[in-house]
Amino acid sequence: MTTAPQQAGPDLTKVRPGPAPHDPVPPRRPRTRSLTRLLPLSPAVILLLLFLAGPIGYCAYIAFTDLQLTGQAHSSFVGLANFRAAFKDEEFLNAVWLTLVFTVLSSLIGQNTLGLALATLMQRASKPIRTLTGGIVITAWVLPEVVAGFLLYAFFRREGTLNAILDWLHLPSQNWLFTLPILAVSFANVWRGTAFSMLVYTAALNEIPKEITEAAEVDGAGGWRRMWHITLPMIRRSIGTNLMLNTLQTLSVFGLIWVMTRGGPGDKSQTLPLFMYEQAFQNSMIGYGTAVALLLLVVGALFSLVYVRLLRTEV
Length: 315
What we know:
By secondary structure, this protein is mainly α. Helices cover 70% and strands 0% of the residues.
């Protein structure tokens, strides 16, 4: 019996030639690559130049002129005359001192310390207590500055809530907005701004590993020792960030003080923002007021440099 011859199949040992490889794409130059990456950011950069850098540059120019709101046809360049006049002005020096007092009392000491204390206590409190306390503190923070100013004015005024409580306790009362205005507005800023510090420190404390604190408790470390040797070093960067943001916000507080005291009585609570407003818009000296604003910007920059240095330091 004969079988049909099998047809020879394709020779699999032979490799079919593939398509010709494409020519390699020449690598882009570093400069072209950088421009390509920066292209999507160009609209944001243009907007920043128009609405941020532009006004700042124009204000810097005005600070070196004698521009006024009324009674002047043309302004002239006066160089450093506005800055020399500021450092010879006793009202300006008083505003600088009150600004530092207000910032240290309400931001560095008040908001920072109270925010850390609330965050620490709320970690050990029950959930209803945390919810109630957090709601009260955050409500004070989200209130508009003018509304908060009226509330604190009603609290500190001669016939206000604080004196009513003191009279009920048979304690001496006084007109707080007249005798201690800078302390009253500092307390108002603490009451309004503590929530931010509390939120920052709550997030920072939650990042601390529980194993570390539990090991310290086993070793016999008390609450204060754990706070000083464990908690504070581990949240050092959060402390620096919180201090920087709070300080910059406190330096620019205007509406709260204006509603409560208008910088008075006299100039006992007149911080730099209020002094700047008075010189620029009430006395119509735009050039001098803008020079004061630039000096306030320098003060904020000095604080920022200190905090940036603190943030760069390794724990």
